[in-house]
Amino acid sequence: MATQKFGIRGLGSAAQTSLTTALRAVARHRRRAALTEQHRLHFDLLCKAMDDPALAAVLDTYESVVDPQKQRQFLFANALYVNALYYYRIGAMTKAELYGHLRIICQNQIFREYWEATRPHRKSLPSASEEAVLGRMMDELVQDLDSADTDEWWVVGNPPEESL
After folding, report:
1. Rg over CA atoms, the chain
2. CB-based contacts of 156, cutoff 8 Å, min separation 6
3. What's the rounded Cα separation, in Å, for the pair 71 and 52?
4. Distance separating alpha carbons of residues 104 and 141, to the nearest angstrom
C-alpha cells in the first residue's frame, strides 16, 4: 500500500507540474495576443491621425509648437519606435537586438527631434515600468551617440547583455 500511495503522490506531483507548465504557456499566449491587439489598435489610430490633421491635433501634446507636417513625422517616428518595442515584448527580438535597431533609428534627425519632444511624456511613466527602463536605455544611447568621437555609429554605446 505504501508503494502505491507514493506512486500516486508522484503522479500527482508530475500532473501538477504539467498543469503549471500548461497554464504558463496559456498565459504567455494570452499576453502575446493582447499585445498584438494593442499594437494593431495603436497603429490604426496613428494611421488615422497621420491621414487627418484634425485627428492629429488631438495627439499634439508637445511643449512647443509643432507644425502639421512635423507632427505627422513624429507620429510615424512613434509608430517605428512602438513597433520595435512590440517585437521585443513578444520575444521576436532580444534586448540587444532592440538596442541595435534603436541605434539605427537614432541616425535619423527627425526621430531624434521626436525623441526630444516626447521627453516630458516619458517622465510620467512609473520609473520601474518596462517602458521607462527602455526609455532610459534609449536616452543613454542618444547621449552616447551625441558625445561619440567617431563616425562609426554602429559601435557606439553599450548594448545590454542578455540574461539567460
Report:
1. 22
2. 103, 141, 144, 145, 148, 150
3. 11
4. 11
- pLDDT digits 0-9 by tens, 80-118: 999 999 999 888 999 999 999 999 999 999 999 999 999
Asked if 43 and 79 count as a contact pair (C-beta separation under 8 A), the reply is: yes
Nearest to 117 by CA among 42, 54, 69, 61: 61
- The per-residue pLDDT for 9 is 58
Among 69, 120, 128, 80, CA closest to 102:
80
Written as nine digits, the cell of 62 is: 508637445
CA distances from 34 to 38, 39, 90 (A): 6, 8, 10
Q: What is the rounded CA–CA span in Å between residue 99 and residue 89?
A: 13
What end-to-end distance do the CA atoms of the chain give, in Å?
44
What does the DSSP assignment read for 119-157?
HHHHTTS-TTSHHHHHHHHHHHHHHHHHH---S-GGG-S
Neighbours of 99 (CB within 10 A): 21
- Within 8 A by CB and 6+ apart from 55, the residues are 48, 49
- 85-60-141-155 Cα dihedral, nearest 10 degrees: 80
